[in-house]
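cache lookup: miss for this entity combination. No prior model stored, computing from scratch. Input as submitted by user K.M.:
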Amino acid sequence: MKLSFIVKSLAGAAAMVAMAGPALAAAQSAPSPVSLKGDVMLEKTVTENGVSKVELVEPKVVIPGDHLLFTTRYHNEGKQAVTNFVVTNPLPSAVALSSDAAPGTEVSVDGGKTWGQLGSLKVPAKEGGERTATATDVTHVRWTIPAIAPGASGEVQYHGIVR
Amino acid sequence: MNTYITPLRRAAGIAGCSLVALSVTAPFADSAHATGVLAGTLIENTATATYQTGTTTGTVVSNKVTVKVDELLDVAVATLSTAPATANSEPAVLIYSVTNSGNGPEAFNLAADPKVSGNAFDGTIKSVVLDSNNNGVYDPGVDTVLTTGSLATPLLAPDKSVKVFVLVTLPVGATDAQTSQVRLTATAQTGSGTPGTSFAGKGEGGGDAVVGLTTASANSLAALIASLANITLTKSATILDPFGTAKPVPGAVVTYSLAAKVTGSGSLDGLHVVDTIPAGTTYVPGSLKLDSAALTDAADGDAGTGGASGIDVALGKVSGGTTRNVVFAVKIN
């Protein structure tokens, strides 16, 4: 098997139960009002008539150097607004954050202890002292969404390169 | 749907960071490989979110998405010989290295081709040998001679290389100082071809194997030079008669000089200068000399013997560009 792609999640299943029967969901111990669903696609650059464009395809074959787009979709299935919604995503060790990640993505280069803009973070340098962190030093990315209205949904994404 | 890629308040995220601090990753654990993440590695991504609803806080974890890294087929071949290897009566030993630059274990088929454009002569491949003890030197009887028909490296781990010796003999007709090249090609056993070609299910860990930018086949040229030697033997004579002149009369002494001139970049081994005593003459005892140094007539420690049956001087190994002179005298009866 070249790819195991786990589509169904526990969180998703819980959300479906909640949608099917609110009374049943209420009887359970505090089901999450928000569902979180991860996805990954392979970014394939195709050139047609001299114009390059990026296509998203199923990651059937993935090799070092390939670009992956990780997406996490959220959906507030509850009746109340959700606030201070912080999505944190540790990078798989085999994936480096793509340097073309959108500026402003908040990142950590120390396993999630400290956070900031990529250009403001430092890492220990091989030759001693420290240097400005680069995209390949990133260990975690995160996004903060101030509020999600009931029924609202959205997604957060990061681009990675297979090391 | 909105797509958030911008950060918002940092303060709001502090709760989130404490949740994921347990999954500290070692980002460079896999990057030690020049060739990238090992084939079969699972890339697993999970996101976690924290939030507030009213006064309560909650946490939700996403499903885990998993992608398996497929095997990249790549290879590099380099020549380790810095100068052309010498071929004479012994074969030239050409040294190459074959490196698995892919990300999975792979064996490579080897092919040595002595026919290269521009060759003064095409050598003859005697054998292809693996440097079993990895010392960079061909050790006859120690290093593994590959069987014709199954010329291949062993399974090489990613980034690992093996040295390969190709033994090349000179063909008939090669002359001194001529050079020739031999091409060693290594090709991934799983498959090769246009970059991006994939072989379903053939990769390490059950994934696919994908041809990398090297086309999974690479080659390198190594040179050999013919080092041969030739010998010319020139015989001259001077006569001294009892009257102080140069007449070939009975009693006159004839001094023969044999010049053995070796030319070429190679050398000749086991060389002997042998001559007979002409009829009607008698060997002059003690007259034998090599390069002006006297030799005894007896078969003893020195290089020569002399007597009625003739002379024999062993020159041993003589390098090109050297001339050895053997002198002996006979008296006309």
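stored under new cache key. Chain A touches chain B through 83 residues (CB under 8 Å).
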